[in-house]
Amino acid sequence: xxxxxxxxxxxxxxxxxxxxxxxxxxxxxxxxxxxxxxxxxxxxxxxxxxxxxxxxxxxxxxxxxxxxxxxxxxxxxxxxxxxxxxxxxxxxxxxxxxxxxxxxxxxxxxxxxxxxxxxxxxxxxxxxxxxxxxxxxxxxxxxxxxxxxxxxxxxxxxxxxxxxxxxxxxxxxxxxxxxxxxxxxxxxxxxxxxxxxxxxxxxxxxxxxxxxxxxxxxxxxxxxxxxxxxxxxxxxxxxxxxxxxxxxxxxxxxxxxxxxxxxxxxxxxxxxxxxxxxxxxxxxxxxxxxxxxxxxxxxxxxxxxxxxxxxxxxxxxxxxxxxxxxxxxxxxxxxxxxxxxxxxxxxxxxxxxxxxxxxxxxxxxxxxxxxxxxxxxxxxxxxxxxxxxxxxxxxxxxxxxxxxxxxxxxxxxxxxxxxxxxxxxxxxxxxxxxxxxxxxxxxxxxxxxxxxxxxxxxxxxxxxxxxxxxxxxxxxx
Length: 477
Prior knowledge:
By secondary structure, this protein is an alpha/beta fold. It has helices spanning about 40-55, 95-105, 110-115, 125-135, 135-140, 150-155, 180-185, 200-205, 245-255, 305-315, 320-330, 370-390, 410-420, 430-445, 465-475; strands at about 5-10, 15-20, 25-35, 40, 60-70, 75, 85-90, 145, 180, 190, 195, 215-220, 225, 240, 245, 260-265, 270-275, 285-290, 295-300, 340, 355-360, 400-405, 425, 455-460. Helix content is about 35%, strand content about 20%. A hairpin with a 3-residue loop joins strand 1 (about 5-10) and strand 2. It starts with a strand and ends with a helix.
């Protein structure tokens, strides 16, 4: 049995899955936690990766590996390959003003045309502008800019700072940094149509000449790099694939193809589609990312997702199982009760100071089942609006894959079949980012894109009820 490894270096933790290259069967796993915060020393990711690999039984019998990771995080290196300052993660919002400044200077339409997206505080380019303004001395030292998965791949291959014993004794070799289109497309200075960096935008961000700044080489989905012989960290026989951004890796792990839309219901919500058409949304609602297989992955994110269900279940004094039973016992439309679930403000639509609203309260509608169902309908209507924004850009949706913790509640699956006018599939819970990375590693190893099956928990009968969304839209008006 030939084995490949996939890594998900997420905000909260590092997960490793080791799979059979022929079937995709997960044969063993490992995990290690990341520290909490929006500003992290990258060395802590590296140590978590090493612990997670050890927890998974090591890599001695593994032929190839790929790292999927959280997008956008800013890792800046000096000429010796040392990290200049702690990395700013995607959820660090201190660069919000920098994002507004860059959009004012360049224009939202120009950004969308040149990079596929309009940058917000999560994007790398805005964090670099923040660095130039808040820490100009550090900005002046930047010799390379990497994303979390780029930097971890570089370290795994043995290219740590020259000062570290046993790593990279010949020098920093910043030109050994590699990435893929999906992660590069979230920087705000990469064009995933031409597959080229836009150094003019990078120069604008850092407020300096960037001709000498190293950026990771963008590998194609099936390309790989090796580990130099004599590197003491990991076996030199390993084939190391390009890696991917987390959403692209998840889509690849799910086997999503053109026409598939993925709805992920976690702490936040995301809606993304696999398509051959690059979107350019100058409103900034849709981020025009690339996918992990050579296409595009337009994406919409919401702040409020699974915690809507958590909060409502707590309010009702029930566990999640009983919450689901209550929601399923109510009729579609919740008796006219509508929950607009902007509990933490909202990103899509961009209403950072908004709060949630409960409308349509009457003596008849004010029941626990109606409130439970209204929470589920509100959650899904917000995500359905995200899908609407994506389809405006020519994406033809044919199937909906619902994943994440929130997808495991039976009320969510059943209600999704009523809110979305699409066939709904709920795959079996799995570490799809890590599995997608493993599938990419298999592709790089064999030269052929593997066809790994994805187990399905449920496929609810289509039961589209347009009145649910109409009622929600009226509440927003």
